[in-house]
Amino acid sequence: MTAQTQQSNVSTSKPVRGRKRSFFYGGRQDSSFKRLLIHLALILAVIIAIYPILRVVSVSLRPGDRLLSTDLAIIPPDATLENYRVVLFEKEFLLWVWNSLVITVATAIIGVILAATSAYAFSRYNFPGKGVGLVFLLTTQMIPAAMLMVPLYILAIRAGLVGTYRGLIVAYSVTAVPFSIWILKGYYDTIPIDLEEAAKIDGASELEAFMRILLPLSTPALAIVFLFNFTTAWNEYLFARVILGSNEQLLTWPLGVQRLQAQFTTAWGQFSAASILVTIPTMLLFLWSAKYLISGLTLGGVKG
Amino acid sequence: MAPIELIFKSLGEVALTVLYVLAIVVFIEAILYVLLMRILKLRLAFPIMLLAPAVIGLTILVIYPLLWEARISFTNMSLRAFKDPSFIGLQNYVRVFTEPVLKQVNFLPLLGRTILWTVINVSFHVLGGLVLALLLNRPMRGRALYRALIILPWAIPQIVAVLAWRGEFNFEFGYPNILLTSVGLPPIRWLTAPSWNFIAMLMTNIWLGIPFMSVIILGGLQSISHEYYEAGQIDGASTWQQFRNITLPLLQPVLTPAIILGTIWTFNNFNVPFFINQNELETSDIMVTALFRAAFQYNRYGFSAAFAFVIFFILLGYSVFYLISTGALKGDKE
Q1: Closest CA relative to residue A83, chosen from A105, A67, A100, A103
Q2: Which of A145, A165, A233, B259 could lock onto A172 through a cystine, CB 3.0 to 4.6 A?
Q3: DSSP-assigned letters across all residues of B35-48
Q4: Collapsing DSSP states into helix, strand and coil, what is residue A31?
Q5: Which of residues 123-152 of A touch B (CB under 8 A)?
Q6: Do the Cβ atoms of B292 and A238 come within 8 Å?
Q7: Residues of B in contact with A259 (CB under 8 A)
Q8: What does the alpha-carbon distance between residue A22 and residue B38 come to, in Å, rounded to a whole number?
Q9: pTM of the model as a whole
Q10: What is the ipTM, given to two decimal places?
Q11: pLDDT in tens, B139-163
Q12: Collapsed DSSP state (helix, strand, coil) of residue B87
């Protein structure tokens, strides 16, 4: 359909350098009808994409007595910030966010250190078992979280780690390592080894070549891995639920927000307010880092 | 406890954990340094030192648990027989295929549903992502704004999105039903009718997954040089022929890993099927949620372990098949 419209339209539109414009990069030469169609399609896609999000905003602004209404207006007529006040000052929302934050930062730091060093070995050295190791790292990405959960839960019970952060932080940082190694190895591979070799000729040790030459050059990739570890742990629900159990003081925000949602009829507004509060910083961080994350993903993907 | 004390308590525990981990790493490195560099003077001493922390971590947290899980998959470990489970051979593996995995649902229907779930989701993700990426790749007014708004579902935390959708599938107060009734259609029982619940899961996950695919595909499209299309046009290629013979082949390096990863992520998706299925309908469970329930609601640990390995080998088989059939592994073998 689009193809036919395109064919009939381009012949009448102004040719560029003696040729008609291709659908795949043209645009300004299109008839206004076709441009209208494309804009309508994109506007429809935008509505589908953001209306459910706007609904959360809308519900979060509802006053308590009008929580359950069939109104579809985005800003409810008697909008109030009451739900935000309750969530911030009467619920333990801030504690949940704090818990998540410290766990996540610790996870990301440990994860980056573990991955940065091993990726260097994978990138610069040949050692027996290197191929097997890389395939193993890839295979771990196929393990369903629920599969690792069964043994980790039972082992955590036996080690007395259920209901503590310790198990969770170590589990998060280590499970993120394989993917991080792939990304970092891909990045290290693009940095010429000559720099390190020159440094070694000048008397630098292997450790100095790694720390002083390669690591500073890899800051963008290290940032990607840090962000990747950060967002994974920040949004994680299942491990937290199983490992933290029902320890009220240690709940991370996904667990807390899920509790609010479970009391749907009474706390829908509070759930929505908490969701918005936690989503805004996450979203900003995400949108800011998205281009780096994607380049990291495709880099690892193409190499794999 | 006062909030401020709780805050210090969590900070203290986290700081202690990080210190522990660092102390262990330093200790191991010191031993390796003395042993490998000073005493044995190995050529590979430095890479071994680099690898040691991650290898030890992965061994303790991935390899050992998996081996241990393999072992309990041959036992009858459950909540009742937790301390001293007895060895029962391959019985758990036989049970996975012959007995209901949960209360009613058997393995094969569950596998069929999981494949259906994966195929429908990934097809919609790729098709939707491709269409949006093609539209967004053209110069036009407001392109940056469209793109930013369309990727929003990807930017919000998945758990928030899924829980919000779970609320929206409420019979009376969710917006899909409000929309339906406002145009005179009967409302749908999204949370109780099995097939509608499955459709609700699909709607949620398709909504969540299209933005990622369109961003990835858009990245691929932008790396395709205009000259190919210009050359194609000189030779008189139609729009469809250009798409078929230029766009698709040149997108393949981006699409292949995205589809493999997308398939595995969808197959392993836990949050969507778990939370949208508010009434715990067994007819909405896919493999991983059934595995979670078998382990943590029915507490059949030995059985769940066997079930987990069956799932893992299905995924492994798929990936190996896909990698070999597309030749994606060749680059790695060089």
Answers
A1: A67
A2: A233
A3: IIIIII--TTHHHH
A4: coil
A5: 124-125, 127, 134, 139-152
A6: yes
A7: none
A8: 66
A9: 0.84
A10: 0.82
A11: 888 888 998 889 888 888 999 999 9
A12: strand
